[in-house]
Structure formats: C-alpha cells, structure tokens
Specification:
The complex is a heterodimer of chains A (about 400) and B (about 170).
Chain A: E1 2-7, H1 8-19, E2 23-26, H2 33-44, E3 51-54, H3 58-70, E4 75-80, H4 81-86, H5 88-96, E5 102-107, H6 121-124, E6 132-135, H7 139-154, E7 162-167, E8 175-180, H8 183-189, H9 216-245, E9 253-256, E10 263-267, H10 272-284, E11 289-294, E12 296-298, H11 302-309, E13 314-319, H12 329-340, E14 347-351, H13 361-373, E15 378-380
Parallel strand pairs in A: 2-3, 2-4, 4-5, 5-7, 6-7, 10-11, 10-13, 13-14, 14-15
Antiparallel strand pairs in A: 1-8, 6-12, 9-11
Helix pairs in contact in A: 1-2, 1-7, 3-5, 7-9, 8-9, 10-13, 11-12
Chain B: E1 2-9, H1 14-26, E2 33-38, E3 48-56, E4 69-74, E5 88-97, E6 106-108, H2 110-116, H3 123-134, H4 139-149, H5 152-170
Parallel strand pairs in B: 1-4, 4-5, 5-6
Antiparallel strand pairs in B: 1-3, 2-3
Classes of the chains: A alpha/beta (about 400), B alpha/beta (about 170).
C-alpha cells in the first residue's frame, strides 16, 4: 500500500489500473478528461496492459465497450454531461444486453446555458437506463468503487453495468490523500472476468437480438431482478473488500447520527461531508440533527431510507438536480420509499449546486433551520420559493 | 482547520503551490489531512486564478471554497487589493510577491530568488515564505512534496528556491 496526494480523477484511474480492464474506450470531456489521460499514460508506460481505443464520440465510446464486453472482455469507459446524454441510446443497449461494463461519470451540468461545472442533472436523468448508479463522496471512495463496481457488475446474479459518479471538479479536481492498494490484494479481490454471455465460435449463440411482445417483458423483468440482486452483491462485495483492504463501506446508504435524530438531511455525493460537519455543530447546540448519504441511487435503498427516517420529526433532501415542473428526482424517490413504508413526515426539497454554484457551510445551516421551521416543498438555495409564489429570499 | 488562499494568474502555478503545500502537510504523517483545489473552470494564461489549501488534524469534510483564510498568498501584486483583508480570519496575514511596500500586508520580492534558480515563476518561492511564516509545514516536508509531485528535472531548482526563501524570512 502506498499513499499519494491525488485528485478524484487520478484516484479513480489508479483504481481502474488495479482492476486491469482488457479494453478502455476513451473520448475526453471536461471534467472527466484526466481519467482517460492518466489511463492512456499507464498503457503507454506498460503499467496497464489494456487495449486503449480512441473513438470519435461518446456514442462510439460506449458502443466500443459493448462490443468488447460481448467478446468477453472487461471493458471501461468514462464520460460526463453532454457526453453521457449523447451516449444515452447505448446505455440501454449495454444494460439490456446485460454487459457488466463499468463507466465513470464526472457529474456535470447540462446545457443550455452551457456550463462545464458540476451538478447531478446528467446522471440522474438516466436513472431509468438500467444501470446501477453509485455516487462517491471522496477520492478514496472513488478509487475503492473503481474496484468494487466490477465485482458487483460481473456477479452472475447481477450482470448489469455500473455507472460510478464523481461530482465534477469538487471531487474530480480536488486533491487529497489516498491509499493505493497493492496489485496482489486487488487480484485477490477481483479475479479475471469469466462469462458465458459472450461471442463464442465453439458454442455459437444469438446475442443482442430482438424480442417481440410475447417475450420482451420477460427480459425487462429479468433485468429488474438482476438490478435488485445487486443489493446483496453490494453487501457481499463490501464484506470481501473490508476483509482484504481493511476499509468498510456501509451499503446502499451511509447514515450519520440518524438513529435518534429529529431532523435529517438526505443527500448524495461530495457535499455530504459538510452536511455531517453542520450536523455535529447543531448537536453541540442540543439540536438532534443527522445526515443520510445515499450511495446507490439504483438499486434504490427503499427499506434503508425508511428505517433511517422513521423516527425523525422532519427531513430535507439536498440535491444538485431539478426535474422541471415537479421537484428534485432524489426527493421523489425518497418520498416514495417513505410512502411504501407507511411513514408520514414533513419533508422539504433543497435544490443547490446547479451549474457548479458553491454550497457553503452557511447554506447547509440554513437548510437545517428550514427543515426545523418548515418551508416550501421545493426550495432553490439562494433564490427560495417553489416557483409558484413569491421568492422568500 | 487552517486555510490558505492562493491568488495568481494563469501560468504562475498558484494551484501547483496549493497542491504541493497540501502534499507537504500530509507527507509521512498519518495524523494530518489536507484538501487542495483550484477555482474551477477553463484555464487561461494570465487570467486571475484562485486556489485553496485546507489543513487539519482530522479529515477535511468541508469542500467549499474558503471564505476566510489564515493566509492569503498573492503571486502577482497587481491582484492585491486592500479589501482582501475581508477574506482573512482574525490574526490572518496577507503575503504579496512585490518589490513595493504594502501597508497591511507582508511584501516579499520573490522574483530575485526565482531568477537565482532560473525559475519562470515565484510559486515555490512563496510556498517557502508561507511555510516559514506559518510553521504549518517543515522544510523536510516541503522538499518531500517537491520530490513526490514535481517533474524530476525541475526538483533541485525548486527545492533550492524553497530553502533560500525560508532562510530569507527566518533572518
């Protein structure tokens, strides 16, 4: 094990080197570019023996990964924002074909207005594409997910691609100390990919076929089952990871001082640390605050969310997303989890960080104050109101 | 938490200094944590650049931009304005690479040392100045960061600049 002061992108590339993908298809886009640049340098210096394929677009990047996966290869690509949207067609081919590709997405705003900075509207718009979606908080978790995601994707019960999301800039371009595991530890954790879901001239089979109304729904049902099986695969993968690397992750969500909390802020990604720090300050003032960080948006942690929020007096959801005309998509999902569990709680949605806008400690403190006092259902940090009435700023 | 705000122009290496300082603080020390990041966005030579270093004895969870710093380091004195002091914590200091006296700030002519080591920019000179004035990192840690994170062919000259800058302040 060695320690290095790395950015989120560089840490993720280190994790991919340890996972030894057979094929990497690369098309650069800010703020993802550093990942494919580093991987290209690793291939150049011989420390990574992958087939590195330059492609002409994101649509081709994922198509290339699909082709490689169909040949039985471990395939990686990375993208962001408009690139993710441009390859959207292929997302469904990858998940429908049950190809366990891993892709890093640097979460970035979507045009127009054009903007290269971070928010989560790109990946959250693709929740229904059939990909497992996980959100990292820091560079170490990014590296560790670069390893863990393959085990989850390639689990024969799952056979589903994984999108690992890193907040653009705030995580991809921020440097911090990261532990890099030894290759032999990584090899023990992640054996080579072996599958029957591949082109095999000795045992020919039909792949990527069409299916009419009489059978199509069965494939969709099986894909749903595979995605649900990922919940168990995540648990088992994290157990194995803890045993080999000594770092333990907490499953589909990460709950902080939520057990006895009156007011809980639910969020995802790199802003969670500042939320926990704010919760600690409120606790010191006698206010029982807690934080729930959603790690996996798909499969969605319905039961875990209900268990974490059931004793609270009120909750908020902070997300870098808005589904225009309704609310943030994470808020919709959280409310659905509570409704299914028969939990009725006042809940408020806070939309922040769009287009990379800084979310300050003061903003988080204000969110907790609003959760306690009650506010509109949907609140834009720094603007206010839910758009139906007067701004409250 | 200790926070350093670096101000420079694109190409002056403000972010490199911010990163090296963070790497130095955590070098060979498992009980110290750092974050370093630039003001995000497109990079243009000559355009004003902000960079941030956050140091603590526990993991740094706050990834937001520094609003009040312990040190503000200005690599180009045309970027200095007196109202920068509003971004300082009480007792904080502003260090400016400048040949001119600046009331309310600590001016230091970094160009002379940079020239001595044939360095095109003063970023590691100013890193040496801050390290000496703040005491946050030792000379050994600064050297370790340069050896770990700068291209080999420029390491010796930058290490020389850091050492000379530290001596100049300590005199």
């Amino acid at each position: 094990m060695s320690k290095r002061f790395l950015s989120g992108n560089e840490a993720f590339a280190e994790g991919i080197r340890l996972a030894k993908p057979d094929v990497i298809s690369a098309y650069p886009i800010t703020p993802q570019t550093i990942v494919v640049e580093r991987l290209s340098e690793m291939v150049e210096d011989g420390s990574l023996k992958s087939e590195f394929i330059h492609v002409e677009s994101e649509h081709s990047a994922l198509s290339c990964a699909i082709g490689a996966s169909a040949a039985g290869a471990r395939a990686f690509t990375a993208t962001s924002s408009q690139g993710l949207l441009y390859m959207a067609e292929c997302l469904y081919y990858a998940s429908g074909g049950r190809f366990p590709i891993v892709m890093m997405n640097a979460d970035r705003s979507t045009a127009l207005p054009w903007n290269i900075y971070g928010d989560q509207r790109d990946s959250l718009s693709q929740l229904d594409s059939g990909w497992i979606q996980v959100y990292a908080e820091n560079a170490q978790e990014a590296l560790d997910l670069a390893l863990m995601s393959w085990r989850i994707a390639e689990d024969s019960r799952v056979s589903t691609p994984v999108m690992v999301n890193l907040d653009g800039f705030v995580l991809t371009h921020t440097y911090e100390t990261v532990e890099i595991p030894e290759q032999k530890q990584a090899d023990r954790f992640l054996p080579p990919y072996v599958t029957e879901n591949r082109i095999d001239f000795d045992n020919p089979k039909n792949m990527a076929f069409s299916a009419g109304p009489d059978t199509n729904y069965i494939f969709k049902y099986k894909a749903h089952e595979g995605m649900l099986a990922a919940k168990e695969a995540v648990r088992e993968t994290e157990d194995a990871f803890a045993e080999i690397f000594g770092r333990r992750y907490s499953g589909l969500l990460d709950s902080y001082r939520a057990e006895d909390a009156d007011y809980i802020l639910v969020t995802l990604g790199s802003i969670a640390g500042l939320c926990r720090e704010t919760a600690d300050k409120l606790r010191a003032q006698g206010i029982k605050a807690g934080v729930v960080r959603i790690r996996y948006m798909r499969p969605f942690p319905n039961e875990e969310i209900a268990a974490a929020l059931k004793s609270a007096k009120a909750f908020g959801v902070l997300e870098k997303d808005i589904s225009f005309g309704n609310e943030g998509t994470v808020f919709t999902n959280v409310n659905s989890a509570l409704q299914k569990a028969g939990i009725q709680l006042p809940g408020y949605n806070f939309i922040g960080g769009l287009g990379g806008r800084n979310i300050s400690a003061g903003d988080i403190a204000q969110i907790f104050a609003d959760i306690r006092s009650g506010t509109e259902h949907v609140n834009f940090i720094g603007i206010g109101g839910d758009g139906n009435g007067e701004s409250n700023s | 938490m200790k926070e350093i705000l670096w101000l420079g122009r694109g190409g002056q290496g403000a972010f490199t200094a911010a990163k090296l300082f963070g790497a130095a603080y955590t070098a060979d020390n498992d009980a110290q944590y750092a974050l370093a990041f630039p003001s995000f966005g497109p990079e243009r030579r000559g355009a004003p650049v902000r960079a941030f270093t956050k140091l603590d004895e526990k993991p740094v969870l706050d990834r937001s931009q520094t609003e009040q710093a312990d040190f503000i380091v200005v690599l180009d004195d045309t970027l200095y304005t007196p109202d920068l002091s509003a971004q300082l914590k009480p007792g904080g200091r502003i260090i400016v690479n400048s040949k001119l006296p600046i009331p309310g700030a600590f001016p230091f002519d970094g160009e002379a040392i940079a020239a001595e080591f044939r360095l095109p920019t003063v970023n590691t000179v100013m890193l040496g100045i801050v390290s000496a004035l703040s005491g946050y990192i030792t000379e050994e840690q600064a050297v370790s960061a340069i050896e770990g994170y700068m291209p080999q062919k420029i390491q010796a000259r930058n290490i020389g600049a850091v050492k000379l800058a530290r001596e100049a302040v300590q005199k």
